[in-house]
Amino acid sequence: MEKYIPCSRHTLANRLCKTASFAPDQERQFKSFCEILMAYLHHEAQKQLETMKEAYAHFDPNLDTTLYPTLDRAGKQQAAQTLADTLENILRKSNFTKFARETIELSLKQSSLIPVTTDVNFNDYERILIYYRGDEKKEVVIKNFSAKKRLW
Q1: How many domains does the chain fold into?
Q2: 24-72: per-residue pLDDT in tens?
Q3: pTM of the prediction?
Q4: Which long-range contacts (CB under 8 A, 24 or more apart) does 79-82 make?
Q5: Does any domain span residue 148?
């Protein structure tokens, strides 16, 4: 499974060269291989971006829709599916974790740092994608001042 590596490709290649103790010629060959690999990965990422742009174009309210053919309901559903699937694939490969629907529903019932009540009708959405990366818990003290403050 592919995963996100939190350093530049040059840093990674240099560290691998030092760890492997390559001879100068081997190091040059390895770095050349890394450049070819990065060009390939860049090409694949660009293909995914273009796939998402093409799928989103049928829903973009700011785009001149005469550039794209009008899709029937099945075509729009396929475009939406392609967009969501491609985005989910990218998020998974980037170490993001998907929130389960049960977790989302539970979090809407619990109190949060900001006292805002949110009511979501999940039936209004065909698909909900909420992802996160990292997990940090800390205790926060919120001071409540009774003085009114004007925010505008």
Answers
A1: 1
A2: 899 999 999 999 999 999 999 999 999 999 999 888 888 766 677 888 9
A3: 0.69
A4: 79/55, 80/55, 80/126, 80/127, 82/51, 82/52, 82/55
A5: no
